[in-house]
């Protein structure tokens, strides 16, 4: 009788915890809860001439509230025709947001092409232009076949709130690193190559490679843990 009561007590205690651990937190929900506070503190830092404080605030926001959150299914229009649904992407991917109003160097595009070649079959590279189809199509000619170029014309994208979040949260240009489980692995809110100096390009490439490496390493670790648990 005592053992039965103890078992019931354990079930009452741990089952809610188990369900709580499995509850998914979505990226747009996390932003809705924490972005406003980040923006207020960032504006204060800029007004007080301490712009470096913004980077610290962003890193804190990413690590504490955004990392490992799940993205909603995004429907992207491809310049080549048709749509791309992120839910159907089987590999990790980079979602790079751009706008033609911001100057993009040839070296940056070459670097994105190089990343797409290096990680072909392992990571998908998606570039999203916040422009009309005609502008995005013109830009797409500079990318190689391993880069998927998409566009979002906000004049016809009013109802797609899930996608709009990626522009109105941290602006453009930005890069969202998303693992195969559709979770945010990292975010680079300054994803652009400022100039063609060798040192600048090296830093740009190294940072991207590091983020991709960490994303893939984390997935491999999770797979091994899952396999080990399954075999017990």
Overview of the molecule:
It is a single chain. By secondary structure, the chain is an alpha/beta fold. The chain folds into 2 domains: 25-69, no CATH class; 73-226, Glutaredoxin, CATH 3.40.30.10. It has helices spanning 2-22, 27-47, 52-66, 106-118, 133-140, 161-168, 198-231, and strands spanning 75-78, 83-85, 93-98, 124-129, 147-151, 174-178, 184-188. The chain has a 7-stranded mixed β-sheet, sandwiched between helices. The radius of gyration is 21 Å and the shape is globular. It starts with a helix and ends with a helix. Mean pLDDT is 85; it is low at 223-232.
Q: Uncertain segments of ≥5 residues (pLDDT<50)?
A: 223-232
| Integer tally of domains | 2
CATH class assignment of the largest domain: Alpha Beta
In DSSP terms (H or I, runs of 4 or more residues), the helix count works out at 7
pLDDT average, as an integer? 85
Largest sheet: 7 strands, mixed
**Major sheet strand order:** 2-1-5-4-3-6-7
Structural class: alpha/beta
Taken from the alpha-carbon principal axes, the silhouette is: globular
Q: What order do the SSEs take from the amino end to the carboxyl end, as H and E?
A: HHHEEEHEHEHEEH
Helicity level? 40-55%
| Number of distinct beta strands | 7
Radius of gyration based on Cα positions: 21 Å
């Amino acid at each position: 009788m005592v053992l039965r009561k103890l078992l019931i007590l354990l079930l009452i205690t741990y089952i809610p915890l188990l369900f709580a651990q499995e509850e998914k937190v979505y990226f747009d929900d996390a932003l809705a809860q924490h972005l406003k506070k980040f923006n207020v503190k960032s504006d204060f830092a800029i007004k007080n001439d301490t712009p470096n404080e913004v980077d610290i605030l962003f890193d804190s926001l990413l690590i504490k509230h955004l990392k490992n959150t799940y993205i909603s299914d995004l429907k992207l229009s491809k310049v080549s025709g048709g749509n791309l649904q992120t839910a159907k992407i089987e590999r990790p991917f980079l979602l790079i947001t751009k706008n033609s109003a911001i100057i993009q160097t040839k070296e940056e595009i070459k670097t994105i092409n190089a990343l797409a070649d290096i990680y072909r079959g392992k990571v998908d590279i998606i570039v999203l232009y916040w422009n009309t189809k005609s502008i995005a199509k013109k830009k797409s000619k500079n990318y190689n076949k391993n880069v998927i170029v998409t566009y979002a014309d906000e004049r016809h994208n009013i109802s797609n709130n899930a996608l709009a979040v990626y522009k109105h949260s941290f602006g453009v240009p930005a890069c969202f690193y998303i693992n195969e489980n559709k979770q945010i692995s990292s975010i680079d809110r300054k994803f652009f190559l400022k100039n063609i100096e060798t040192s600048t390009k090296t830093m740009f490439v190294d940072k991207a490679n590091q983020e991709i490496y960490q994303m893939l390493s984390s997935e491999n670790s999770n797979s091994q843990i899952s396999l080990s648990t399954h075999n017990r």
